[in-house]
Amino acid sequence: MAQVLRRRGRIQVRVDSREREALIGILDSLGPRLAAPLASAPRAYDDDDLQAEYDRWVRPDIDRGRETDLGMVRDALSAGEDTLPLTEAQALAWLRAFNHLRVAAGEILGIEGDGWEDTATETTKQTPEYGVLIALGYLQEELVVALGS
Amino acid sequence: MATTSAPTPTKTPAPAKSPDRQERDQREFGWNVVVWNDPITLMSYVVLVLRRLFGYDHPTATRLMLQVHNEGRAVVATQPREQAEVSVAQLHSFGLQATLGRP
Fold first, then answer.
1. CATH number of the domain that B67 lies in?
2. C-alpha distance from B97 to closest chain A C-alpha (Å)
3. Mind listing the pLDDT tens digit for each residue in A51-91?
């Protein structure tokens, strides 16, 4: 199983070829969905005029940043290496990218409340999106620990 | 606790702010950055984001995260509007649900 290690201030992600392929598959399937605003895309303001201003001037930077993060993950996974060294900035980019992908997967599954891990049906657990939530959640936890240590 | 009263130091009263000034201060400086609960984002990730973006220590970030989780929302910072908008944009870039608004 993929591992995130931190030794002497350096972060390494260890992923075998099968895991890399699976992660690239996730990027391929959910990445394009992120290009369009998700129904759950957060608002900044209650006020519609201020929100329109935010969408015009701020949102494009956030979207570009997300695409950069996703591209960074894809490039690293496509390098064909089992051990991927990450800087702190890259580890944060991976975390952000994984969170966006998990939110997209949650939206597809229609998850609206806490406790979904306990209430998911067997059918839901067999879906690719549920696998995304679990697998990327695991990697996020590992990255958080590595960044916090 | 001692009950003997010490001489009260003289203190120059702060100049009273005019209502306009108070209103302007409130408008410009008193914007709350609010993080909202969502069912997908990991608790540990929220703690990390709050620490990285706002410089909170681990106990403070954890307390705020738990407030988000248990109460549905938490004010994580109060800042001038422009800065609050930057904070919210950073939170959005991390995929968190965040808004800014007047208290």
1. 3.30.1390.10
2. 5
3. 999 999 999 999 999 999 999 999 999 998 999 999 999 99
Q: Which domain holds residue A127?
A: 3-148
* A136 in B contact zone (CB under 8 Å): no
Interface predicted TM-score (ipTM): 0.91
B61 touches chain A (CB under 8 A): no
Q: What is the DSSP letter of B7?
A: P
Q: What is the pTM of this model?
A: 0.85
Q: Which tokens sit at A126?
A: 């067999």
Q: Is residue B8 part of a domain?
A: no
Which residues make beta-bridge pairs with A7? A10
Full residue range of the structural domain in which residue B79 is found: 22-101
Dihedral angle over CA of A119, A38, A142, A117, nearest 10: 0
| Residues in chain A closer than 8 A to B93 (CB atoms) | 62, 65-66, 96
User: Measured between CB atoms, does A141 come within 8 Å of chain B?
Assistant: yes
Domain count, chain A: 1
- B45 domain residue, yes or no: yes
- Touching check for A138 and chain B: CB below 8 Å? no
